[in-house]
Amino acid sequence: MTTSAIAISSIICSAGTQFRAFMDEDNVLDMMDLIERGVSFKTPIRLAELNGRLYLTDGFHRIEAYSRLSILDIPAEQCMIVPASSIEEVRVMVIPPFFGALKSRGHAACAKRCFGV
Q: Which domain of life is it from (predicted)?
């Protein structure tokens, strides 16, 4: 898939690909501020492509921030699209970013204890 922008409306955000039980409001507000200031994120929004459909696997807070700012399209250079062969594979793609987020927030023991990573 080659494009200059990706429509947020084309991204499926709720296919069992979110481990967090809630959206961190402070994180969303921080992301909104960065987007408004034109800051490019170091890590891309991760999307899995399955049967021509895009599934969000990492970047839930950024997608929420873009939506709240009424930005309908995300610059393609802010996204990484990875092909998937099944919905199970899409769900597995969520695991590494989720554990990285746990560890970066000081929850390495939880990641190790609960998930063995």
A: Bacteria
